[in-house]
Amino acid sequence: MNARPLSPELLHKMDAYWRAANYLSVGQIYLYDNPLLKRPLELGDVKHMLLGHWGTTPGQNFIYVHLNRVIKKYDLDMIYVSGPGHGGPAVVGNTYLEGTYSEIYPNVGRDEEGLRRLFIQFSFPGGIPSHASPECPGSIHEGGELGYSLSHSFGAVFDNPDLIVACVVGDGEAETGPLATAWHSNKFLNPASDGAVLPILHLNGYKISNPTVLARIEHEELEQLLRGYGWTPHFVEGHEPEAMHQAMAATLDAAVEQIRRIQHDAREGGNLTRPRWPMIVLNSPKGWTGPKVVDGLPVEGTFRAHQVPLADPGSHPGHLKLLEEWLRSYRPQELFDERGRFKPELAELAPEGARRMGANPHANGGMLLRELRMPDFRDYAENVPEPGSPGAGDTLALGRFLRDVAKLNAEQRNFRVFGPDETLSNRLGAVFEATTRQWDARTVPNDEFLAPSGRVLDSMLSEHQCEGWLEGYLLTGRHGLFNCYEAFIHIIDSMFNQHAKWLKVTARLPWRPKIASLNYLLASHVWRQDHNGFTHQDPGFIDNVVNKKAQVVRVYFPPDANCLLSVMDHCLRSRHYVNVVVAGKHPAPQWLTMDAAVKHCSEGIGIWQWASNDQGSAPDVVMACCGDVPTLETLAAVSILRQHLPELKIRVVNVVDLMKLQPPSEHPHGLSDVDFDELFTRDKPVIFAYHAYPWLIHRLTYRRTNHDNIHVRGYKEEGTITTPFDMTVLNDLDRFHLVMDVIDRLPQTGDKGVYLKQQLKDKLIQHKQYIDKYGQDMPEIRNWKWG
Ligand SMILES: Cc1ncc(C[n+]2csc(CCOP(=O)(O)OP(=O)(O)O)c2C)c(N)n1
Ligand SMILES: [Mg+2]
Question: pLDDT digit string (tens) for 508-521?
Fold first, then answer.
């Protein structure tokens, strides 16, 4: 390794570039006016509210300047992921210096007025957030919620063989579960057909007010830890700028050359043995180059540098002086000319055109998005000669469709299926007829479907990784699906939140074209956890999802396989949403032919006329259902009612698209009040059997005319290892309870109703006795058929 690769001149310029980025960063945090310090700093030049994070920023500026050098030297296709994204001033400042910022936001031009605007807008009402937010060119990762940088980076490089993601990992961020597990991503990367991630662990020693664990273990332990995760760590340590520039440059050269060698060996030499990819540990002071001591307390190189080191120049005259000294220490007059233009001899250090990290199209995935080649989902239809025909399992049919989506897009390499070891369990196994699981660690003879490349990434038991990889994959312009047990998708509640926020904000940025939707398939759901029981019974993810902006979220409950196919076809074609699809994997009755399913799913909600008998008159009761198991129980309840109380007029309404229930003012899918009243009536009892927690239905319908008459049954946290039917009984969602609910609300059922109710109560006791004795549901339940 050449220990001093930088000529004195280049070193001098790079240091000046770094000073410029640092100057812009401090300017963003503090300055309201006087952007070039042409006159002495006054209190009026300083913002009233001082917000932002200085601590991480100079280190990230240092990294960015050095990445620019290697991009130019090696003509790299590289993007930057800022794990500690609160260092927003760094990415904003650097994209400004390289010119991309002003190209997107011409209002923030490359002159004195532009600088003033750049400074004011930061953390200012009506301006930009203080993170590597969607507004920032070149960002695919806001980094507000720490932990996902490395998974996002790997998602970005799958199937992008020429791309390198430089991923800055905060040493505090590295303590989070998602980040800790993400080091293992290197076992899933194919050096021939994927790109590379260069992690840069930013070991600045501190978080907000604590040291970091990785900074307080021995050097040897840290090195062993990273080696144990399969990386080759290179350490760059110190604080003296000149030595650090040389060390960083030498190390980056070595890392890039190592990446190139690995890729060459794999691509030209066919060597797909798992490589030990390089990574960098940058051990530099937190708040490097900032104030050393403030009010008698050390700041640079301590946790006190995390946010705004000089917090209150208004009431501390000394702080104003320190701030001016700090800003002037970067010698702005050497960096910007009289008019505020970045000096050309420095500006030329940045890469050009799309090689600039702020302009790289991979960081604006919608620009690269290509449509999926889709098979005709109707070709995978289940044959449904009559409602209630047996089906082998809804996800089974979907698996065949996904198999062919994978096959048709194998050449484009832009579709992947993700899952935490559950693709087979969720009964999507058909995909393995067309592809394999991508896995670059060792294999032994009995392994199944593992190969160095494949469309499925489901061999790591980490919902965080699945989510992070998929998000990174989507954000860089590709398509995918996350299949997961319903209960455990909660693990990524918070990651979903962040992605939904990203989608909301980017939807109104005209320079960011839309990306493919994030599709969840939640199979193995609450009602069928026969052998797993209570721990696996939790449909609450949906409640979290509907909190997010209506433009972004969609929730679907296809009641059978043909509906599932139709819904998933729609989801895979859609853009910029989060689609949640809940489906069953067990053998279950099928209700709709493909033609009927397409119509029903297009409408999202509708009367099932074949199951209703209120044609030509007002119904006495509306039996609504949403979800495969609630639909089954509702239809079984209807058949009991039809047999015992034939004079009752019953309307069956099935809901596929949950968002239809909301008013159109709340969700773009919402039914108009007129349409809602037509379906659910203005005054008749509605017995609503719902897949998940019942109160969500109330929340969605509380403004509807007939809300007071809507009576919802759903999961009420009663569960255990028991029979499928008993699960519904435990939660009062079973057919018998549904019938009793009707009788209770219809006085006209009179004595006939009272007698029927008594029989059903007896039935429930009989059911309990039967399952206790035989360990399965009664034959009349197991063999029940519609019609
Ligand atoms: C998941 C999560 N937990 C807590 C926080 C609050 N927080 C913001 S910055 C920070 C410290 C980050 O430390 P580090 O990753 O080392 O970043 P740096 O030192 O570069 O600022 C914390 C705890 C957060 N943003 N995200
Ligand atoms: Mg830190």
Answer: 999 999 999 999 99
